[in-house]
Amino acid sequence: MTTLRDELTPLIGSKSAKPLATALDIATVGDLLRHYPRRYAERGELTEIAGLETGEHVTVLARITHASRRQMRSRSGHILEVRITDGSRELTCAFFNKTGWLAKQLQPGRQGLFAGKVTAFRNRLQLAHPEFELLDEHTSDVAVDEFVAEIIPVYPSAEGLPSWTIDRCVQQVLTTLEIGEDPLPAEVRAEHGLVDLETALRTIHRPPDWEALRHARLRLKWDEALAVQLVFAERRMSAVARTAPVCEPVTGGLADEFDARLPFTLTAGQRSLGKAIASDIATERPMNRLLQGEVGSGKTVVALRAMLQAVDAGKQAALLAPTEVLAAQHARSLGELLGDLGNAGELGAAENATKVTLLTGSLPAKRRKQALLDAASGEAGIVVGTHALIQEHVSFAELGLVVVDEQHRFGVEQRDALRSRGAEFTSPHVMVMTATPIPRTVAMSVYGDLEVSVLDELPAGRSPITTTVVPVAEKPSWLERAWQRVREEVSSGNQVYVVCPRIGDEPPADTGSKRPPVAVLELAEELANDQLAGLRLGVLHGRMPPDDKDAAMRRFADGQLDVLIATTVVEVGVDVPAATVMLIMDADRFGVSQLHQLRGRVGRGSVPGLCLLVTEAVEGTKTRQRLGSVESTSDGFELSRLDLELRKEGDILGAAQSGSRSALKLLSLLQDEEIIAAARDLAQGIIARDPSLGHNLELAHLVTDLVGPERAEFLEKA
Question: In the listed set 121, 154, 187, which residue is the last one of a domain according to the structure?
Fold first, then answer.
């Protein structure tokens, strides 16, 4: 008898188990059986080659159209070049040396599974020395009986682990599998039309037909949805144990004075959301609100009005930013917005003024000591900083409201630590802001009980932004034209950002045959000596001393630099109205949301913005499809949907922060809203009766297996 929690090595041997653990982090039977097929192929149905991505390990079912063997020019030996097709596009397979016996097998007209890493050679997709298994009737030396099913599972694979090897390990484990008690009670399965877990796992790996596969996937989606919602339900129950400081509005206070002085009219969205937040923080129930808004939609003003309400009530507010550059920018912006209302203790301050204090980890000792005193004494009504704000020796007089900007840039522990900085048995109100839009159904699924609010109305005066992909692999002259365009913008009195994925002061990582990413320091030197010679260039990256970073940003903002060559430290918050062009090198190395954030740095004045996405990605790959999406729309919410469709949705649950595998492998946050809603209701009832799942051990195991202890902790604190 084999259970899901059994180790793999005794069952399939170390020769098979070791590469599974090393390459795919698969150690138990459950890990292996939840390594679901990426897709399925029917015998005779070919794989769509156009959807392949360079750099990934793939298994394709294709037909051989051409095979030729020739002498290699640069070294001794032969190369066998085999072209395979899906009927519309070809993929080249290259085999080196000892090719004579291969040429006899790989004849045109034959069909097989080919597995390897996708590379680009002379702008064509290629598999270098792939493993293969031929599936037609001529095959005599391959175990075709492993592929007797009409529906062939194709697994996510890795180097040395082709799909058919994983398939054989799965079949070996399934022969002795016994699940035992099902985590989902029979009445729940009956109510929702779900098959039992063992049937679902057997079927998803060896489906007899497409209808049975649909039922298996439905059941396994339910398991994923319920595991996540059980964690959220526990979190919601424990949250009510703490109260928040009451921050009631004060007539004639700072907030009213600030509103009276505003030099512009608030949008309808800003006014409506402001009322909702004012109502939330006036109670002792901790506010947990996610504020989404496009770049430039006015989230900062909404946050400042809420912070002033907390200050009016005798409490403090903290604004946490992901980088020192952004923290300093926020402190300056708040100071400019408040004017003499934010200069308490200084000559000329308003009578009822508060103090805005910047606190970061690298402040000079004297300034840092004063900032710590301002926070601890309550002298500073608003404290702006980075992770330095949540260090244990930083104390507040009475923290009433925490605003977290660009929450996705923070570690979970950091956000949780700040949330718990209130007095004993209290928790400050929390508002997290992001300019990376998330579809509402996704946000409700991911953020549990956070109240999700959206600012989708841009203030007057924002200029349109045009985005263009610069495909240097196919059209190298376009990059030269891009640098000419930069010069034209500068000659018109405008400024330009150039963003690179790497700094350049570190040893480049081993990228195999691919060149290392473009680096800020290397590109800056090249541009200064060649394409942009004579222009005023500056550099900005995360490893510069804080004062140098601030000085570089100030010089750019003050118009003393024409071009700022930077890493993504300029991604959020930096506001330079004269900047009209955002040129992003190796744009394929950034995510859709990050590209959307970056281009939001331009078009902030009266002149239309231009975003140039420079890439060597080959046409027809998913990467180019991703960049094409950014080029085709400026709607952040539409892009977020496209981003989720193109990448693993489970990543949004924090895989990058927890270091573990994605929790969601089948569940679609966009398409399975009904399953998520039903699982949410079921989870709330279960946790209400059994908060620790002590009487539902199988469900507790389900949460541990699918969400994992690290991921469960992430979800509780997110």
Answer: 154
DSSP string across 596-615:
HHHHTTSS-SSSPEEEEEEE
How far is residue 679's CA from residue 146's CA, in Å, rounded to a whole number?
A: 37
Q: How does pLDDT run across 200-221, given as a tens digit for each residue?
A: 999 999 999 999 999 999 999 9
Could you tell me if residue 161 is inside a domain? no
Do residues 233 and 259 touch, judged by C-beta distance below 8 A? Answer: no
Quick check: 698 and 183 in contact, CB under 8 A?
Answer: yes
666 contacts: CB under 8 Å, gap ≥ 6: 36, 217, 220, 221, 224
Q: Identify the residue with better confidence: 296 or 156.
A: 156
Based on the structure, what is the number of domains in the chain? 4
Whole-number Å distance between alpha carbons of 321 and 22? 37
Residue 381, pLDDT score: 94
The CA-atom distances, in angstroms, between 573 and each of 126, 546, 683 are: 42, 16, 38
- Domain check: are 513 and 585 in the same one? yes
Question: In terms of C-beta density within 10 A (0-12 exposed, 13-18 middle, 19 or more buried), how is residue 535 classed?
Answer: middle
Mean pLDDT confidence for 583-609: 87
Does some domain include residue 551? yes
Query: Same structural domain for residues 441 and 582?
Result: no
Q: Does 25 share its domain with 44?
A: no
What average pLDDT does the structure give for the chain?
Answer: 83
Asked if the structure places residue 552 within a domain, the reply is yes
DSSP 30-58: HHHHTS--SEEEETTPPP-GGG--TT-EE
DSSP H/E element including 91: strand 90-96
